[in-house]
Each structure stands twice: as structure tokens, then as C-alpha cells.
Amino acid sequence: MSRKICVVTGSRAEYGLLFWLMKEINADSQCQLQIIVTGMHLSPEFGLTVSEIEKDFRVDKKIEILLSSDTPVGVGKSTGLGLISFSEALAELSPDLLVLLGDRYEILAAAISGTFLKIPIAHIHGGETTEGAFDESIRHSISKMSHLHFTATDTYRKRVIQLGESPDRVFNVGGLGLDSIQNLKLLSRNELEKSAGFQFLEKNLLITFHPVTLENTTASEQFSQLLLALEDLKNTRLIFTKANADTSGRGINAMIDDFVSKCPDRCIAFTSLGQLRYLSAMQFVDAVVGNSSSGLLEAPSFKIGTVNIGDRQTGRIKAESVIDCLSEKADIQKAINRVYEQSFQNFLKNVENPYGSGGASNKIMSVLRTFSLESILKKKFYDIVF
Fold first, then answer.
1. Whole-angstrom Cα distance, residue 386 to residue 368?
2. By three-state DSSP, how is residue 23 classified?
3. According to DSSP H, which parts of the chain are helical?
4. What domains can be seen in the chain, in order of their start residue?
5. Which of 75, 225, 231, 310 has a 20 to 30 Å separation from 115 between CA atoms?
6. Whole-structure pTM over 0.85, yes or no?
7. Whole-number Å distance between alpha carbons of 4 and 75
């Protein structure tokens, strides 16, 4: 009897990370892949990326939870709507395992539903810290509701164990995003320019900035400082990818559209570049600028710099190619200037990615396929002896 493994995806970035694992599950004769699509994937405003998923796989359930508001109240209501809808969908699909990645609010709703329905949960990328966002609390909460854990570094593995999870259920597999770098045939410079509709300039930056939900200054105030820093750059192609459907995300996206409209000769914005074009762009840009985890997890593998702004990623393990700076114009400009210093460019040639070199999907699959599910729901709190 095949093991039914249900994977939930709610955002474009998350799907890019999960893609190769989903392919492995789908190709395994001992497993049956189930897919639930939710969140931004189902919104035209955020690119209606469910259409991309349906080119690759059969989608079993679509769960609409996004409201027109991205206020804290709106996000809370979306989570509640997700809890209702996931409970119904999971009851109907009745999977043997529920696979969840990360720390978004729609994934929290899926985890709560799975817990109530007594479905074992496998959580990917637990144990990480992002002190500037409420994702931090969500991630650790999902870990405590989960029964199998797949972390990106040994430090994160130890942190999940510190949460009371049994060591024999916590596996360090490396970063999932590196599987795409390893497996995809990335676009050439000419192919990317033709596909995305722009040409690279003398200097090029890939910019992704998301709201920081636990800081005192607003997302618009922080992002305006980044735009002021970018405004002064010369002969630089600025490639913006828009924010997620998080609190204040729509406000950031409106600011991007306004900025691009004023300098279309050197700026371009995408609701979703897609995994292939996003990673292909990393080959040819000088740095990733903003506060996205991709600047920490994937960018070091391309031997490029990362300008990491503010506190959103504070606490995460970082390669030496990551330049941290405050969300202030002068500090951002200083960090960008550092990227172009010859000494830093020479230094990048020997940078190593702390998240490994790929193969995480295969390691996860070997556990999902064989780990005994008998009595897995009953967990004992693992006490660390001090």
C-alpha cells in the first residue's frame, strides 16, 4: 500500500524550494503525492502562480484564504479561514504524512489542522531564527506540532532538539534551495534578457524586500530608505521582485511600481520571476539586496555578495559574503559600495555556502519513504541534560 504524502505550498518562493522533493515523491512507486495549493498562488495580484504548479503536477485541493487587506487583522482572519479550509481538505484527502516548509501563516493553519486530525507532520527548515519577524514564533510553533524535522544546518538541528524534539527524528539535510541550483539548467545571459524583457547594464542588483513585522519603524519607512539609496546609483540595472502577501506587503509593491515608473530605463519589477529566472539572474548580478532569505541561502553559491538590510534575518547563519547593514540610506549605500570594492570581489571567489551544496530533497525522501509511522504521534519531550 502506497504512503500518501501531502505537500502544502502557499508562495512562489516556497514552491521553488519544494519542487524537487515533490518530483521525487511523485516518481516513487511506494508513495502517492498529494498537493494543496493556497495563499498567493491563487491570487492574480501576486501572479496566479498556481498555473505554474499545474504545468508540473496535479493539484488535489485549492484553498483560498487571502483577503484584500494585509493589515495584522487581515492576516489573522486569513489564518482563521485557512484553519477551517485545511481541516476540511485534509479530512477528505486523509494523507499518511503532511509535509510543511517554513514559517508562513498559511502553513501554521495547515499545521494546526493536521494536529487536530492526527496527521503526522514533517517540517522542513525548522530551528532557524528571524528575530525581526513574527515568523520566528510561527516556525517554532510548527516544529512543536511536527513529528519529523529536516533542518538546513547542524546548528539548526541542535536548536530543534533544544525545543524538546527527539534527536532520532531530527535530520540535517542542508538547504533545499541548493537542489534547484544543482538540478536546473539555468538560462544564459541572452536567454534571460530575452525571457525577462530587459538588458543587463554595467552594474546589476537583484532586489527583494519583505515587511519586517516586529520592528518599530513601518515597512514603508524602511523601504523608502532603500529606494533613496538606490536612487543615487549610476549605470546600474535594478531588478525588483515584489513582496509576499504579508502585513504591509501591498504597500511595498506600490512603492516599487512608483519607483520603476520614474526610471524605466534602468529599473524593472516582477510580481514573480519564477525559480528558473530568479536563480538565473543570480548568475549575472553583482549582489542580492534586501532582506530575503535567498540572499543567505542561495546567493553564496553563486559567489556574489548579499546586502542584508535590517533585522528580518537576524539570527540566521550567514556566509561571509553577506554584508549586514541598518535600514538607513547611508548604511545601505556603504554596504553596496563595499560589494564593488576589489578586495571584496577577490574575497568572494573563496566563499563557502554554510547550507551545503545540494541533495536535500533526496535525503528527505529517504526518510519520508521508510520512517515508521506507527505510534509516531505520541512524542516524549526530549530533555537536554545540563
1. 32
2. helix
3. 12-27, 50-56, 72-93, 105-116, 135-145, 154-162, 177-183, 189-196, 219-231, 249-262, 274-284, 294-297, 329-339, 342-348, 360-370
4. 3-174+359-370 (3.40.50.2000), 187-348 (3.40.50.2000)
5. 75
6. yes
7. 30
Please name the helix (run of DSSP H) or strand (run of DSSP E) that holds residue 9, with its range, or none.
strand 3-9
* Cβ atoms within 10 Å of 203's Cβ, excluding its own: 18
**Pick from 297, 206, 272: which is nearest to 49 by CA?**
272
Which residues have C-beta within 8 Å of that of residue 280, sequence separation ≥ 6? 186, 187, 191, 192
The Cα-based distances of 99 to 67, 91, 337, 364 in angstroms read: 25, 15, 41, 10
Dihedral, CA atoms, 139, 145, 151, 156, nearest 10 degrees? 60
Residue type at 212 in one-letter notation: V
What does the block give as the cell for 255?
512603492
Q: What is the pLDDT of residues 279-321, one digit of tens each?
A: 999 999 999 999 998 999 999 999 999 999 998 888 889 999 9
Q: What is the mean pLDDT of residues 169-198?
A: 95
- Does the pLDDT value for residue 13 go beyond 70? yes
Cα atoms in the Cβ-side hemisphere of radius 13 Å centred on 297: 26
DSSP 68: S
